[in-house]
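Researcher: Here's a chain I'd like modeled. Treat it as a single chain, no partners, no ligands.
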Amino acid sequence: MAKLIIVSRDGSETTITGKEGWSVMENIRGAGFDELLALCGGSCSCATCHVHVDAEWLEALPPMGADEDDLLDTCDHRAANSRLSCQIEYGPQFDGLRVTIAQEDPV
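Model: Modeled as a single isolated chain. Structure tokens:
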């Protein structure tokens, strides 16, 4: 079973068994992390599922699309390792993927 490591905003780390075919966002929300709002439900029309991906995993991820890139540009906490978790479909190739939920942008 492929593991997904989630670091919450307070720095606590939780390892879950990721569900294949679900997005990373769906896996995080399904594990009870309410701090990841995911307001648009995964349709890539907001940036409330923003995560920071551990550097060792960046090249393994699918390329970022233009919509994702534009939405991340609106985030105060964008970094080189920023991704929208709704745009990463989880599967066994990501066993051990570690993501940190990004700080929430001010309203």
